[in-house]
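lol ok so funny story. i was supposed to be doing the assay writeup but got distracted and ended up predicting the structure for this chain instead. priorities right. anyway since i did it might as well share w the group, maybe its usefull for someone
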Amino acid sequence: MSTTQAGARGGTADPAPTAKTLRGLDALNFFLADVRDGLGPYLAIYLIAVRGPDQGWNEATTGLIMTIAGVAGLIAQTPAGVLIDGTNAKRAVVIAAALAVTASCLALPFIGNFYLVAATQSVAGVAGAIFPPALAAITLGIVGPKMFSRRIGRNEGFNHAGNAVSAALAGGLAYFFGPVVVFWLMGGLAVCSVGAMLLVPADAIDDDLARGMTKEQEAARDAAGKDDAPSGLATLLKNKPLLLFAGLCALFHLSNAAMLTSVGQLLTHLSGKDHATSLIAICIVAAQCVMVPVAMFVGAKADAIGRKPIFLAAFGVLALRGVLYTLSDNPFWLVGVQLLDGVGAGVYGALFPVVVADLTRGGGRFNAAQGAVATAQGLGAAFSATFAGLIIVSAGYSAAFLALAATAGLGFVLYLTLMPETRDEAAVGGGSDGGMSSAMPATA
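and the output, tada:
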């Protein structure tokens, strides 16, 4: 942070963002909700219901496309975090990523070749890797460490509200205009996302706080006139709790990522392509409506309750959800079970950046660490679609849901027995700076 910026922001004082800046951050999370993940589950519906087997698309080929895009995205995760740590132009990076994701998805109706579809979705995956570290970094740089947990919960609340609204619009409009309506909607939301990003002033983001430095480190560096680089990426590999957390995130997404996609495919077979998009939109809206209060609750109570018991609840609910899907093929039952996605995903989204911040405070590599953990997360998500798709083709939907549930159960056991309570780590080094210690923990 430059001397000018330090003076403008009050030196080492806690950030005091304006109401306009915070409203811009709310709007950014709301409108980016549907853009950041590209087409998401609608990709499977579009390829299976609109293109169909006559054009070579089934559960297995669609799953392979999603895996290829996921692998491309996970390869980009760590470089994306490094980019966010190093750049002071975070707004421009977010805008460029939003436009890249949107353009890649809007090209889909005009191409049919498997390799071209894989290429466009891979571009969307790479660009989408920018959003998680960028939004967390912008938030930390605006509100500082003391308010980070609560603000991340609010971010996730607006993100899920945005998903719910966009899914409701997609479902309603698809009833009249067909599945292609999701492309129109995505284009409109991308424009709104760019406008929301511009509502957040560049000078409202403290770029040193945004990469995980403490106020004391900033003050000492500015006083010495130095511009120290953050700790090396190799330091992250010595952080055993961080590596364990990365593995647990991979298991969570290996279980979770394919559940909604598989339900969408099942609903396509049960209800036909004319109603599949509307039904999956109902699933999304139902889950997102639950995620909003869950994320808000987690953000407000994570410091009081602790990270570990809340994360264990997410794994447990995910396993239960997979089992319940097997009990009935009734579309209303499937939509009802999908409500549980709101609990698991709501907890995960609100706690993921908080736990990473706990484990990396003081090293200046918060966003690189987010990218590294997200790489493991993305690896699990990328293989989830193929994992479930192959089981569906060979053994049916019930077997696939049970396999996904068993994966979540394994994650629960490992988190319970091996993962430390990271809130305690924050308290040990915390003091008056809201839990931001000067050293990154290297062991459990």
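Residues 1-12, 425-444 have pLDDT under 50 and may be disordered. The two ends are 32 Å apart (CA to CA).
back to the writeup now i swear
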